[in-house]
Amino acid sequence: MRVTIRPFVMALSMALTAPLTFAALSQNVLAQEAASPDEVKQIALTDTQIDAFLAAQKDVEAIVAKAPEGDKPDPKVMEQLEAVAKKYKFANYAEYDDVAGNISLVMSGIDPDTKKYVGAEAVIKKEIASVENDKTVAPNDKKEQLEELRAELKSPPCRRKSPPISSS
């Protein structure tokens, strides 16, 4: 039975690439971290954590969509997020957020063309080459994009942003 479920889970995860990446990134904004808000605590993901993360998405997205914007997270929103995290068997929202960040790290290493994991560095290098060869982008925009991509390439993997997922 597990053999037939695995391909389904992989197909589902590929279909949810863009929503998961968006959700993971938007949830990181709400997370309260003491050291550095951009740094992801890297963990080994389990099937149980991934399944719970996928199951919690609808509830979390509903809370995040209603959350007021601002620099500091609303305590009531954080309480709701904590309750959802516990509902889906996470110890707390911080654990849920760690799982979201790690999924985002993995997703950032998937080549949008081949849909295979190649690593974040390879994806960024490919995007740099694409921007360099794009004749439709204005020179100032191209320079800015290349600077951002090169800075991202130099940053540690746990601080990298997920690349945009193309719909093609």
First-residue to last-residue Cα separation: 33 Å
Total helical segments: 7
Q: What is the overall shape?
A: globular
Structural class: mainly alpha
CA-atom Rg in angstroms: 17 Å
Number of strands: 0
The share of residues in helices is: 55-70%
How would you spell out the order of helices and strands?
HHHHHHH
Major sheet attributes: none
Number of domains: 2
Strand fraction band? under 5%
Low-pLDDT ranges = 1-36, 162-168
**Mean pLDDT, all residues:** 78
Report on this structure.
The chain is mostly helical and 168 residues long. It folds into two domains: 2-31 and 38-107, no CATH class; 111-168, no CATH class. Helices cover 63% and strands 0% of the residues. It contains seven helices and no strands. The chain has helices at 2-15, 17-30, 47-66, 75-87, 93-107, 120-133, 139-154. It is globular.
Sequence-ordered SSE layout with sheet pairings:
Blueprint: H1 2-15, H2 17-30, H3 47-66, H4 75-87, H5 93-107, H6 120-133, H7 139-154
Concise synopsis of the structure shown:
The protein is mainly alpha-helical and 168 residues long.
List keywords for this structure.
single chain, mainly alpha, disordered C terminus, 168 residues, disordered N terminus, 2 domains
